[in-house]
């Protein structure tokens, strides 16, 4: 009687055991797919572009390298180093799209912002900057 009770209890778990065994078998098949070594696919890409594009990019690169000192700037501060650092920090928080730098010209530190190619572009930004810094003015190259 003792053996039959044991066998009956095992038969009660028959569905669970079948599910567990099938899960193990199918997971083995899934992992087997990862072990297959296939060579990487080789391809060829052809890019056709006008030769003038390369000349234009080269020209723009040289223009950006040589003409940086000939751009319009806006000066927002003139004074001590501590004041210049504070003005630069405040400016960078308010105007994230413009660059700023501290320049030392004896005996004062100056904060200059932006590098504008045209006077029109510089004047547009000057109007915005003057709202926060009324003493700001435009420097010409």
Low-confidence stretches: none
Radius of gyration: 36 Å
The CATH superfamily label of the domain at 70-139 reads Sporulation related repeat
Task: Provide a count of the helices.
Answer: 5
Judged by helices, strands and strand pairing, the structural class is alpha+beta
Overall number of strands: 4
Keywords:
141 residues; alpha+beta; Alpha-Beta Plaits; 4-stranded antiparallel β-sheet; 4 strands
Question: How would you describe this structure to a colleague?
Answer:
With 141 residues, this protein is of the alpha+beta class. The protein has a domain at 70-139: Alpha-Beta Plaits (2-Layer Sandwich). The protein is 52% helix and 18% strand. The protein has a four-stranded antiparallel sheet, covered by helices on one side. A hairpin with a 2-residue loop joins β2 and β3 (108-116). The model has no long low-confidence stretch (mean pLDDT 81).
């Amino acid at each position: 009687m003792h053996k039959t009770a044991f066998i009956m209890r095992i038969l009660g778990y028959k569905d669970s055991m079948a599910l567990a065994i099938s899960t193990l078998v199918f997971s083995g098949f899934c992992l087997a797919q990862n072990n297959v070594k296939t060579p990487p696919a080789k391809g060829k890409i052809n890019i056709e572009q006008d030769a003038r594009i390369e000349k234009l990019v080269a020209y723009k690169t040289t223009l950006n390298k040589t003409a940086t000192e000939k751009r319009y700037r806006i000066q927002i501060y003139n004074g001590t180093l501590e004041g210049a650092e504070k003005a630069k920090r405040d400016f960078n928080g308010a105007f994230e799209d413009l660059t700023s730098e501290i320049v030392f010209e004896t005996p004062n530190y100056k904060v200059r912002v932006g590098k504008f190619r045209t006077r029109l572009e510089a004047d547009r930004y000057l109007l915005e900057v003057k709202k926060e810094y009324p003493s700001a003015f435009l420097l010409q190259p």
